[in-house]
Amino acid sequence: MYQDDILKINPKLLSTFISKVVMALETPSNDADFIASVLVEADLRGVDSHGATRLAGYVKMRDNGLLNPLAKIQVLDSNSACTLIDGDNGFGMLGARLGMQTAIEQARKNGIGMSVARNMTHTGLVGYYTMTAAKQGYIGIAMNNGPQIVPAYGGTTPLLATNPISFAFPADKEEPIVLDMATSMVAAGKLRIAEKKGEPIPLDWGLDRNGEPTDDATEVLANGYLQWAGGYKGFGLATAIEVLSGVLSGGTFGTGTPPLKNFGEDPLISCGTYIAIDIEKFIPLNDFQSRVDSLVQMIHSSNLNPSSSRVYASGEIEFERKRERMQNGIPMSDSVYNELLSLGHRFGIESDLLK
Known about the structure:
The chain is α+β, with helices and mostly antiparallel strands. It contains eleven helices and 13 strands.
């Protein structure tokens, strides 16, 4: 199989470029800047499936009437600790931003805040929103549902999305603990990256049309389905996320959510839940951060098995990767780079993205 060359992209230039493309869709500049920050953060942390590779798909969604670039995101109902949001079929990042911001404000006053949002599109890196809470000294929790692409455990009919979930816990001297994971073995976007690069995928990522493991990303995306992380346990967690996001918000869930085979050409509707917890309502923040540091150090002190050179806390690899990519550039396949160049040509945006 043909594999792309890898280029090194300047993060700041990439962010500016993405923002200009999103503004070309008529999205206001401050919202476009935020959307760009979410995509570039994903690329910096090595979650390439949720980074700049998504931009061409968002443009297609707008072109096909599947994304509202001028969405009027609004709070439908709110009280001291709970908020219901409608995303108006706009960029999911903007609904998720409002969801976590509102949850933090409520937690500041009442100890805990929870927002549920419906009628959103793709929200990008779910961990972005929990890290926003952690940076302000709160525990952050976020999750969302999405299109029918994964069947119930033991079934063959697509029912749920990969239903990602994230937790972030602030630390002191150590990096925050950040869990950001799909409930399937991997996010569907990782298969799309492999498909663009012409690379095989691990056999435990997906099944073909006959329910057999395959290393062909296109077969999984077009005719097969992803596999749950931990089998029935991953499916159980995904079901809980479906209830907390789709069912609780009054939005779409299960077979009521349109299926997705082709990103940008099929509807992508999601609902999300955003929770912030004020640590100070339990113990002093400094004490909590020190205790998180101690936990991270306990993880680091674990005895290693023969195949390991180091033990990491959740999110630690991504923080290290971000530091390296900020200095040396974001690695990008030439297929994704050429997609960006095509978008630049279409909208009259010039930029030398190379590091």
